[in-house]
Specification:
The protein has 596 residues and is mostly helical. The chain has 28 helices and seven strands. It has three domains: 20-168, Butyryl-CoA Dehydrogenase, subunit A, domain 3 (Up-down Bundle), CATH 1.20.140; 174-307 and 452-511, no CATH class; 315-435 and 522-574, Neurolysin, domain 3, CATH 1.10.1370.40. The protein has helices spanning 28-45, 47-52, 57-88, 93-106, 110-121, 126-130, 134-138, 140-150, 156-166, 170-183, 195-200, 207-221, 225-246, 251-258, 263-275, 277-290, 315-326, 331-342, 379-398, 410-413, 415-430, 434-469, 476-491, 504-507, 521-540, 543-554, 560-565, 574-594, and strands at 6-7, 10-13, 185-188, 191-194, 346-347, 359-363, 368-372. Strand 3 (185-188) and strand 4 (191-194) form a beta hairpin. It is globular. 44% of the residues are buried.
Amino acid sequence: MARSKSNKKGDIMNNWDLSKLYESYESNEFQNDLKKVDLLIEKANEFKKLFKGDTDSKVVLTDFLLLKIEIIDLATRLFSFVSLNSATKTTDQESARFNVILQKKFTEFTEVNTLFSSYVSNIQNIDEVTNSSDFLKEHAFVIKEIIKYNKYNLDEKTEGLLSKLSQSSSSLWSRLQGVLTSTLEVEFNGEILTLPEIIGKSEDSNPEIRKSAYEVELKAYDKISQSIAFAMNGIKGEVNTLTEFRGYRSALDKALINSRMNEETLNSMIDSMKEYLPVFRSYLKRKGELLNHKNGLPWYDLYAPIGESSKEFSIQDAQDFILKNFATFSPNLENLAKRAFAENWVDYLPYKGKVGGAFCANIHPLKESRVLTNFNGAFGDVITLAHELGHAYHGDNIFSESLLNAEYTMPVAETASTFCETIVLKAALKDASKEEKIYLLESSLQGSTAVVVDILSRYIFESSVFDNQKTNFLDENNLKELMLSAQKEAYGDGLDPEYLHPYMWLWKPHYYSGSLSFYNWPYAFGLLFAKGLYGIYQKEGQSFTKKYDNLLKATGKMSVEDVAKLANIDLSTKDFWRTSLDVIKEDIELFLELTK
């Protein structure tokens, strides 16, 4: 388990508690559940003959779905414990060993699951069967999804083999990137810092520290860039090969299908984002002027604090601030945050061996979540904590659904989190002085710019990587060139071209997954969808909160477009996206007015 320590302002546990999952790898509970996997494998394999027999399809369908629920429940418990331990101790050999063990065990379900998909797809009267019981009706969407995805499946033997091979290819490349970036030591002003700690200096109030940290950070990447370039090529090459082999048009096509989202929706959103780039560049240039830069904002000052006083938050301060402002939306949201803080769901501070960034893991079997942040005390860290608690609130709403109806896709995954950011910011702005408004607005615009402009650069970059990797090996210099090109296209004259970030491809873990490509534009979707929903909330008031909760509950059993329709939103046209971007534009215009 991660170590625990008290915060200066009271008896707060800075590290999460995983004991509700298991006390340890040696505990009877963990070891018994590990053995239970083997029993479920045997039970699943018994269905192979049923898929070929003449047993009533209603019975087979029902029994196998019930078994899948049991398997997902067990897998969630085991993998959550291992992955959460790995996130705070990336070099822990025990966690690495059990991750490999679990991966190998659960790949044994691939073959029978592939056979099940084929079986379901061949049921002639599937609608009649689905409507024959309340349980099957509850899972009608899941059944339709199984049939839709089946055309991309290979035969069961090949699927089983590919599942096993991924454990010695993309999974290991992904782990390499995580280990190298989390253990890279950076010497700064006589201290040895971790990469998350040196990146955190980008928010320091001292401009010399920000610039020096940026220079040291870029230099440090030289030590690992060649190795991680191999990881990028290994993963993207695997994805390119398999997506073509399965019949997808591209990695993006697969990402859209997995996201239950139409390409028309993505194109409408991306085109709208590009239309508003001049607005974001005006914010960047004004920030550059405020910091005495004449050629656009240098990368190292992207997250520089603006305002007369940049308050530092203790963990207690952050908790109090979030609870107060969550309460302005609903008691349910406030109570969720109270539980998270009181029951030690959060691992707050950066330390060696802990992964960078932030995430939230929803643990359906516990009806709880766990949140990781690298909290340094800046207002942006408070926003990040609110963001991750939004994911936890999404989980809290969807925990009432069946496990099979709880798997929401990437685009809607960022909705509740971004909505919570907006709640905190808007509530904080109400009573702020002019200087505080400038500070709060600018802090928010940092995030919005990252999610619209930088995400656009990441989308452009990843598209280029997939295209170029088909015919070339992209070494670290090629990847740096593609990254700089993407940043110039997205940021334009908003940034100083002499001070960009050629290594953004190396640091971001989102690029390093064999099963999850294009984990960039979903953030933009989440931001803009949430801004639009918040606009509806402003018009409808408290009556909107129930509609909002129901929308979150539906995200695991609807397409993205159908979820939006619950709030009378049409995602296929630019009208909605422009309305959402206008919400951010209003903040930028206010910032420009306040900083004249």
